[in-house]
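Re: weekly structure request thread

Next one in the queue (273 aa):
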Amino acid sequence: MRRVKKSIVVVTMMFFSMILFSMTNVHAANKKLKVNKVYTITKKIKGKTKKKYLVKVKIGKKIYKKKASSKGNFTIPIPKQKVGKKLTVKAYRKKNKKWKLYAKKTITVKKKTVKATTKSKYPGKEDAIDLEQVKKDLAIGKEIHKADLGIGKGKYYYSVNYGSCKGSARVGYVDDYIYVDTNGEFVTLKPLNGATLYYTVAGASEKPMTQLEEPTFDSEQLKPGQKVVFYCGDFNKNGRRGDLYLKVKAYKNGKLIAVSYDFHYMIRLISLH
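Done, posted below.
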């Protein structure tokens, strides 16, 4: 009889021990301490715990700490760490005016793999133009477009022989370096963003675009801050065609960065007799 009672006592104790152990594990599982991944480039440890809890990170002999916000978020500035370094993050709750350990988590510093940036299919703004390729494309007489569809600054152009004008070309970030404006009577040309321009000009009735001299370092030039204005009365004096042909090359830091062989509208003169 005594053995039976003793067995019942032992079983009962084991049962309550299991319940207590289970409750302890549930309590531990419910503890809230989340820490974001830390990399070799990380300057701030971020995470989440209970609101207003104190969070500490010990690195060497120094302790970095910060109270969590009312939503439990925390951010603790730290020095960059080496890969493989183990950091222990501890959260404390205040009880009886003293901070008691609530939860802790150990994290390992990882190496940050920098994702390869997607390379633009277009050259950079100050990359040199392949002039020889442009000349070859112009020579075949075929109309070629292989660049941005949009127009204006920040757009890369590669257009040759476009429209009905053989010998025309817009290559590079033309609108970023070459300013051309026409109102039908005057055409204004000036360099932008530190470029130097070399140009040749003729009326459409004087010679076709293909025969207009290509600008060289001996041609007319415009330095930053300068401009030139062409008056329509000085070109196309026979009055049959009013377009102005203008070949311009833009250089910066010794590199050819934009080409504009273009026609610009000018008022067509009408004979009254």
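The chain has two domains: 33-115, 131-264. The helical segments are 2-30, 131-139, 174-177.
Next request, please.
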